[in-house]
Write a structure and sequence with these properties.
Order of helices and strands: EHEEHEEHEEHHHHHHEEEEHEEEEEEEE
Largest sheet: 9 strands, antiparallel
Strand content: 25-35%
Amino acid sequence: MLLSLSNEPRDYAWGSTTLLAELEGRAPAAGPEAEVWFGDHPGDPSDVAGGGTLDAVTGGTLPYLLKLLAAARPLSIQVHPTLAQAREGWAREAGLDVDDPRRNYRDDNHKPELIVVLSERFESLSGLRPVDDTLRLLSALGDAGAVAELRSRLQGDGDVLRDTIGWLLSGGAQPEVDEVVSAVRAAAASETGEWAETLRAVAGIADSYPGDPGVVVALLMNHVVLRRGEGIFLRAGLLHAYVSGLGVEIMAASDNVLRGGLTPKHIDVPELLSVLDTTPGEVQVLRPAAGAIAEYPVDVPDFALRRITLSGAPVTVAVDAPTMVLTTAGTVSVRGADGGVRAIEVGTAVFATADEGAIELSGDGEVFVASPGTGLRA
């Protein structure tokens, strides 16, 4: 069975008025358009052409959620729990209403995620930078007292990154936060060395979230610039925040987010620190080999994602589990097992049930094919 899917963009404040509109060839939106969800997640299941929503077809069993994501300003700094942490947290908060703003866990699932870039440039904060590198960055900020305090904390004993993030988010470090941010602004205006781009990015984040301690947390994170077609996988425990750009995102079907700044929403600092993996290091950028089919391998069973470039010759895709095809450029159609053909407009998707066996894609354009990972296939 083939079903045509669409959904309305979610209007989160960090969304863009132009990125999704330009992708779909329409006029800019009147307000922010942040995400379009393709899946059966109860928070916003996809609309099925002809009526109804996808969850009525799947029973809410789809293990992944596919999205278009368009960021004009930074998302919250956040981390997602492991499966064990999610189950324990969900059980612990059983007494809270599901919509209680104090709730950290919205379900009992983990939320690893992968994003592949559609815009020419995409900025992200991904993982914690090695401490020695951050100390070199801080040398560009001068000798203000708060900068010296931050440097001293990072040179202490024990898990200095966990301790420093806890201090920054404690509510008691606001004077130091403000002074460090002032030093960042000054350095960003004059720095021309290796940290110039990172400092300009953090200064821009401060413009979007003035006074937010998360700005200094961002200073501890890897500033990653991705180009079109590149991807990044974010495992459980990894601190991250998308800064700007357009991409296709796929994740385990969960809404579990522990926030660490750049947001007016609830931040539970002890719970954040309990799930945070403070192992520092660069996060690998996925750069597929050139070719019509690009693979983005990840080590989770919940999802798999491929990018297929079509240039006239049809491409057959095996379907042995619930599969989605999302069009992001050009004119593409899909043929199902019954021989019927349907177009997939840019910004919409087709859902194929496992009994299709195979589908044929044709046209000139670009699609992303989402399915469960091999560990969850039928």
